[in-house]
């Protein structure tokens, strides 16, 4: 006679009562948390499957390996975040207003572990060659946000003398640099927001770059 615990250990496929799509999403949700908490190398498919409640072999029905699961989590996370960011800055009448929205996290509510997962992604992509192309994908998702802000800054005079490409990279470097400082330092980094805003106001009030002064 087989007891219920052995049945549970031998379970295959999706959890009882769940659809295939629900199981796939559950795997990504658990993996996002484990990748964020423990890192890519320390997260196993066995651990992900255990928390979802399926046999580890059943994970391969949804993902061919850990790298494919990581990619799926990235695509389930980053596009949503950057789309919300873009939508949040569209009503802004100034570049600095838009930057402040990004820095203060007013670009829409995020699910648990999304930011921590994204903060760790560049390191994972550099350490694991099979995921290195995600760095390019990450930049592709970010560029519409920072290009829009740069174009707005040029239109309002907040980026005097900048071309759109240089302005885009300036804003991306400032915001993303602050983002990583926030997540990889234990001390409070919120003061960096004011520093960035002061710097941008100084640029906005300056003469065009390269323009001779009085």
Provide an overview of this structure:
The protein has 214 residues and is mainly α. The protein has two domains: 1-63, Homeodomain-like (Arc Repressor Mutant, subunit A), CATH 1.10.10.60; 73-208. 64% of the residues lie in helices and 0% in strands. It contains nine helices and no strands. The protein has helices spanning 4-9, 20-38, 45-52, 66-89, 95-103, 114-127, 134-156, 164-184, 191-204. Helix 2 packs across helix 3 (45-52) and helix 5 packs antiparallel against helix 9 (191-204). The longest helix has 24 residues, at 66-89. It is elongated.
Task: Label this structure with key terms.
214 residues; mainly alpha; Arc Repressor Mutant, subunit A; 2 domains; elongated; disordered N terminus
Structure summary:
The chain is mainly alpha-helical and 214 residues long.
Distance between the termini: 94 Å
Shape summary: elongated
Which class do the helix and strand fractions yield? mainly alpha
Helix content: 55-70%
Number of strands: 0
Structure annotation, total helices: 9
- Total count of domains: 2
Q: How much is the average pLDDT?
A: 86
Low-confidence stretches: 1-14
- Residues in β-strands, percent: under 5%
Could you give a short account of the major beta sheet? none
State the order of secondary-structure elements, H for helix, E for strand.
Answer: HHHHHHHHH
How large, in whole angstroms, is the Cα Rg?
22 Å
Topology at a glance:
Blueprint: H1 4-9, H2 20-38, H3 45-52, H4 66-89, H5 95-103, H6 114-127, H7 134-156, H8 164-184, H9 191-204
Helix pairs in contact: 2-3, 2-4, 2-6, 4-6, 4-7, 5-7, 5-9, 7-8
């Amino acid at each position: 006679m087989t007891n219920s615990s052995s049945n549970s250990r031998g379970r295959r496929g999706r959890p009882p009562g769940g659809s295939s799509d629900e199981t796939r999403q559950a795997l990504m949700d658990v993996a996002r948390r484990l990748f964020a908490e423990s890192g890519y190398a320390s997260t196993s498919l066995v651990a992900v499957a255990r928390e979802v409640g399926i046999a580890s072999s059943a994970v391969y029905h949804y993902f061919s390996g850990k790298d494919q699961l990581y990619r799926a989590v990235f695509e389930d996370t980053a596009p949503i975040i950057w789309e919300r960011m873009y939508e949040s800055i569209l009503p802004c009448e100034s570049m600095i207003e838009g930057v402040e929205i990004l820095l203060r996290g007013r670009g829409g509510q995020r699910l648990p572990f999304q930011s921590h997962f994204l903060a760790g992604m560049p390191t994972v992509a550099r350490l694991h060659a099979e995921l290195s192309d995600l760095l390019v994908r990450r930049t592709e998702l970010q560029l519409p946000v920072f290009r829009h802000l740069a174009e707005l800054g040029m239109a309002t005079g907040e980026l005097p003398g900048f071309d759109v490409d240089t302005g885009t990279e300036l804003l991306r470097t400032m915001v993303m640099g602050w983002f990583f400082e926030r997540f990889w330092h234990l001390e409070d980094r919120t003061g960096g927001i004011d520093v960035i805003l002061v710097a941008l106001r100084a640029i906005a009030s300056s003469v065009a770059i390269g323009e001779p002064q009085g």
